[in-house]
Amino acid sequence: MTVIMRLLVTNDDGVHSPGILALKKALDPLGEVIVVAPERPRSAVGHAITLHKPLRLHRGKMADGLPAWSSNGTPADCVTLGILELMDGKADLVVSGINHGPNLGWDVHYSGTVSAAFESVMIGVPAIAVSVASWDDDIRWDGLARFAAKLASWLSEHPLGPHTLLNVNAPNLPAGELKGIEITRLGSRQYVDRLIKRVDPTGRPYFWLGGTLLDGQSEAGSDVHAVANGKISVTPLQLDLTSNAARADLRAIEGL
Ligand code: MN
Questions:
Q1: Å from CA of 244 to ligand 1 middle
Q2: Band of pLDDT at residue 189, cut at 50, 70 and 90
Q3: What is the mean pLDDT of the chain?
Q4: 210: left (phi over 0), alpha (psi -120 to 50) or beta
Q5: Main-chain phi, psi angles of 14, to 5 degrees
Q6: Which of 5, 65, 167, 207 could crosslink 31 through cysteines, CB 3.0-4.6 Å?
Q7: Rg of the Cα trace of the chain?
């Protein structure tokens, strides 16, 4: 089966990252692949967009010299520029990644990778976010890139509902050691010691954000659990953040 698709690839680790290169190469056989990514790493910028300064598009290169577009904008900006300017609105799918590091559980709200995919579904183009859930230096990009290409091809025949994306996270394992694929829900990720306060040499306080992950939050069925158990996690995410449980409870307020 030959699928001809118009694909946009972005990555919040920047246009020079190894993950975007692996993804672009794996998606190339599916059709036309346009690459546009931030000119420098922009991880954890969430869904930031640039409103108060000009956005630029530059002809740049990826790590191996392949041509690509780069921008001074955020990952979400890159998706808007890619779809509306470079592809004239005619994109079939946006694939954001492969991100170096997990985008699991509540962390998706900080993620430039996942937010780029959300920007795409807001514009009306289906999207996948792909992350390798590891901070190792030695990442096995190719297997996950091939899985992303298979998923892209499958989605072209089986479209998701509107305003929905797929968030993919995989452990950094050789293909033979992966335990399969699990469709998951978003788990929780809570951190302790999130704010570290220090004092600079002049006696003034300064702060580092960070913290360590709270253990014991790996409920079965969650993305966190699947990856911890050697599986590729695929979580469908939607834009609608409404709590329907609270909505029912709050009906009483309408009579106040
Ligand atoms: Mn990143």
A1: 31
A2: confident
A3: 95
A4: left
A5: 100, 165
A6: 5
A7: 19
